[in-house]
Amino acid sequence: VKCAADADCGLGNACVGYACKAGKAAVCGNKAIEVGETCDDGNGADGDGCSGKCLAETPPLGGLIDAAMAYDAATGIGWIVGGELAYQLNDAVVRYSEDGKLAPFTPFAGLVGPPARARASLVRDPKSGHALLFGGEGYYQVFNDVWRLVPNNPGAPSWQAVATKGPQPGERMGAVAFWHAGSGRMVVGLGEGYYKLPEDWWALDPVAKTWKLLTLPPLGGPLPRKAAAVADDGTGGAWIYGGQGYYEVFADLWHVTVVGDAVKFAQVQLAPTAPLPLTRGCLVQTAKGLVLAGGETFYRLSDEVFRIDPGSGKWTTGKGPVTAGPVCSLRADGNVVVQLGQGYYQWTQAPGLVAP
Known about the structure:
Layout: E1 13-16, E2 19-22, E3 64-65, E4 68-72, E5 77-81, E6 84-85, E7 88-89, E8 93-97, E9 105-108, E10 121-124, E11 131-137, E12 142-150, E13 158-161, E14 176-180, E15 185-189, E16 201-205, E17 210-213, E18 229-232, E19 238-241, E20 253-259, E21 262-268, E22 282-286, E23 289-293, E24 296-297, E25 300-301, E26 304-308, E27 315-319, E28 327-330, E29 336-339, E30 352-354
Antiparallel strand pairs: 1-2, 3-6, 4-5, 5-8, 6-7, 8-9, 10-11, 11-12, 12-13, 14-15, 15-16, 16-17, 18-19, 19-20, 20-21, 22-23, 23-26, 24-25, 26-27, 28-29, 29-30
């Protein structure tokens, strides 16, 4: 029977797609899937897999790899920028939330901001709550520009170009980047430029909009590499694991920090041997040590999670999600979330929890 409204179908029935269906009219938001609904998650939000009209949504991040993420465990909100999506570069910004108030994933497309890119660096400034984007790879170029991402929850964020003055680092992607709280600067080093792996390290003052070339120790630092796993140590330094050099994939762990305008390195001797040589993995510091997940090693994807004690160098391993180029974050409950990235024969990775 053709219909235009529920009233055309008689008591107890519903009009769905101009056809009468048995059953009462649906009430979207009651957590019960009823006639005409394909999902009901109990809220009226879009962008979380179930629309405000209780219709299943295509996952907004299906197939996103090599994106950049800045996450704040205190608020449960992070930002995912760039990456590749089905062989195309992603120019949308995605808000990721675990605060229980905002939708888990909210994509914001069409923002006026940086060109689409993958393998960029995104670092959160805890003082302002903003995030700084540096570098990355576009369609036919590698960038060295800087952009500021300004949140406006629950609305859309905005981009501000940071026009730096004076000397600056060359173009690069897959760099190491972290926030140095003591000086209020973003530190960037290593990565891949045009046909080379640069060895220099720089610090950006986002207020003065100036870069400073940092002094390196004469010996003892990590060899040039791209796509290393990086974790903020919470005290103004960072941990670096693995990455790809000119002729090898590394399996070493380093701590890096900045004293004045000088970079300081310390290598952790892993025992009894090092975990897998890995590139395009992710590294997170937890209260119990470091968690290393995902990545690829010698033409295969890693399906292991490594838990490393940086104090002793000892580590254990277990099974984890098979994914390269994922994003990782530390939740307030102490668990690590590993999501997105590239799997075998598929480019969609659901969120996975890893206990520290």
